[in-house]
Automatic annotation (TrEMBL):
The keyword Transport applies. One of its GO terms (biological process) is transmembrane transport. It comes from Streptomyces tsukubensis. Residues 1-27 are annotated as: Disordered. PANTHER family: ABC TRANSPORTER PERMEASE PROTEIN, ABC TRANSPORTER PERMEASE PROTEIN YESP-RELATED. Belongs to the binding-protein-dependent transport system permease family. This is ABC transporter permease. Gene3D superfamilies: MetI-like. It is found in: Cell membrane. GO terms for cellular component: plasma membrane.
Length: 319
């Protein structure tokens, strides 16, 4: 009797209960989280996932927005790849734009960020001034102003004519029209500039001091210190700008008047998709184009991620 009393714990010393009465069930604890997430979940399902599923179905149909969809299998895809030369011209135009606009935009953004980093006075003002074009975005009004600047008799044409360069307007020249859209994108370099500036401010000054002691000049410090330490930020900006560049629409629509001219030189992929969907009422064909664009962007992004292993440096690697 005595041993039993000694080994029996008192109520105050008893271990906390592991039964459901001792704590709330996991499902009950997660309930409020799902309630707060429900607007986002409903939005994702109703506004993103469901339309994507419908678009995938329509890509295998002949649908003109007025009659019921008619199943045609892979005919839209085979026509796209083998029977539509304008499709391939839109692909080439978009790729040219991406190859030109993305490096120029990131280059300008990094150059301005480096200048702002070294400024002692007025940094906030200039940072806001350079960021302002990104706030405007690729709006229709800005694109129309840009078209007027580069049109025949526009400001740029007058300036170039004054120094003996006669172009007759970039917008009407098939070899220059795509660069008008690319320059508009470059002009809106404020967002990547701010990201670059934040990354530059995180680089330890000790690295530059050590490089300077070793005899490295500004160019060598930029190559050996700045670029490696800034490579994660550069990678982030590269992915974002590449994805956005493949989806360019508003500037091309405004500058070309919605026709992709002259001679399809500004007939970007998304502009041609819009034309086939709403001008020609070939919604099934346009849906197929949209899914090919999604797969292409995914493939390019995957390539960037895979190649990043050889040029992106993280400070905590090997720690």
């Amino acid at each position: 009797m005595t041993s039993v009393l000694r080994t029996t714990p008192r109520p105050a010393d008893a271990a906390p209960s592991s039964t459901p009465e001792g704590r709330r069930p996991r499902r009950e604890r997660q309930g409020p989280a799902y309630i707060f997430l429900s607007p986002w979940i409903l939005g994702a399902v109703l506004l993103t996932l469901a339309p994507m599923a419908v678009s995938l179905y329509l890509s295998f149909t002949d649908y003109n927005l007025f009659d019921p969809p008619h199943w045609v299998g892979l005919r839209n895809y085979t026509e796209m790849f083998t029977e539509d030369p304008r499709y391939w011209r839109s692909v080439r135009t978009t790729l040219l734009y991406v190859v030109v606009a993305v490096p120029l935009k990131l280059g300008f953004a990094l150059a301005v960020a480096l200048l702002l980093k070294g400024m002692r006075k007025g940094k906030g003002f200039y940072r806001s001034a350079f960021y302002a074009p990104s706030l405007l975005g690729a709006s229709m009004s800005v694109a129309l102003v840009w078209r007027a600047l580069y049109n025949d008799g526009g400001t740029v044409d007058e300036i170039l004519s004054g120094i003996g360069i006669h172009t007759g307007g970039w917008v009407s020249d098939p070899s220059l029209a795509v660069f008008v859209v690319a320059l508009l994108s470059v002009w809106q370099f404020g967002a990547p500039m701010v990201i670059f500036l934040a990354g530059l401010q995180q680089i330890p000054g000790d690295l530059y001091e050590a490089a300077s002691i070793d005899g490295a000049g500004r160019t060598r410090q930029f190559i050996s210190v700045t670029l490696p330490m800034l490579s994660p930020v550069l990678f982030f900006n590269l992915v974002l700008e590449t994805i956005q560049s493949f989806q360019v629409f508003t500037p091309a629509f405004a500058i070309s008047g919605g026709k992709g001219g002259p001679a399809d030189s500004t007939n970007f992929y998304t502009l041609y998709l819009y034309e086939r969907a709403f001008s020609a009422s070939h919604m099934g064909y346009a849906s197929a184009m949209a899914w090919i664009l999604l797969l292409a962007i995914g493939a390019v992004t995957l390539v960037i991620f895979r190649t990043s292993r050889s040029w992106v440096f993280y400070a905590n690697e090997g720690a």
